[in-house]
Amino acid sequence: GAVVSQHPSWVICKSGTSVKIECRSLDFQATTMFWYRQFPKQSLMLMATSNEGSKATYEQGVEKDKFLINHASLTLSTLTVTSAHPEDSSFYICSASRPEDTQYFGPGTRLTVL
Amino acid sequence: QQQVKQSPQSLIVQKGGISIINCAYENTAFDYFPWYQQFPGKGPALLIAIRPDVSEKKEGRFTISFNKSAKQFSLHIMDSQPGDSATYFCAATYGGATNKLIFGTGTLLAVQP
Fold first, then answer.
1. Stretches in chain B below the pLDDT threshold 70
2. What angle do CA B99, A102, B109 make, to 5 degrees?
3. I want to staple B101 with a disulfide (CB 3.0 to 4.6 A). Which of A80, A100, A114, B91 is the partner?
């Protein structure tokens, strides 16, 4: 149990376009979901925390207008990278948690912006 | 205050040996300390976690040692295998396991056959 999926697993887009990444908890209801980004050979950096039905809480330095997060249901959160640029190329990872339990991570989405 | 310092940055161990990775923290409010294993191109997977009310936790070949007074915790991998070669991250959080995690910088482990 406690499986988190992400879609797509990788995406290549042109500079200036928007990309949506989905994060789903497949077998449990996630009260909280987190979005991280990871550059090569670096640690995970938390971008934002989202709770179902409320606005996401962004970490300092993360542009909320650029990284739009929607947590519409207890099993789905989406991250939209708007007007993507090459510097947004990264590995984006979500995690989901339920009360009294730990965080379960998705497999990640590799974004490449040309 | 929010940092978790992890060492070493990389580690080479012979098959069958013990791999030891250390982490230190400053924030005494942290109350949950997990370790994650990450393979290239994959998301992190929870290995083992500990809370500050115990000094050691063992699950199979993986052991966490926790020193509350020193604000340090470590991961020991016994009988290391080539399949253990991965990047390991320690993390810490407060207010429960569902709160945001503060990650260490990671340790790249290579187990040589």
1. 1, 96-97
2. 100
3. B91
pLDDT tens, A67-109?
Answer: 999 988 899 999 999 999 999 999 999 999 877 778 899 999 9
Q: Which two tokens stand for residue A58?
A: 């962004």
Task: Tell which residue, A10, A13, A44, has the closest CA to residue B106.
Answer: A44
The answer to whether A100 contacts chain B (CB < 8 Å) is yes
Asked if B96 is an interface residue toward chain A (Cβ–Cβ < 8 A), one would say yes
| Residue B9 to chain A, least CA–CA distance (Å) | 10
pLDDT value for A98: 78
Which of B6, B32, B100, B109 has the most A C-beta neighbours within 10 Å, making it the best mutation to test the interface with A? B100
Do B74 and B20 contact (CB within 8 A), yes or no? yes
CB distance A46–B101 less than 8 Å? yes
Q: Which residues pair with residue B91 across a beta bridge?
A: B103
Q: Which residues contact A22 (CB under 8 A, 6 or more apart)?
A: A6, A7, A76, A77, A78
The reply to whether B42 touches chain A by the CB within 8 Å rule is yes
Tally A–B CB contacts below 8 A: 59
Structure token digits, residue B46: 């929870």
Instruction: For residue range A12-27, list pLDDT tens digits in order.
Output: 999 999 999 999 999 9
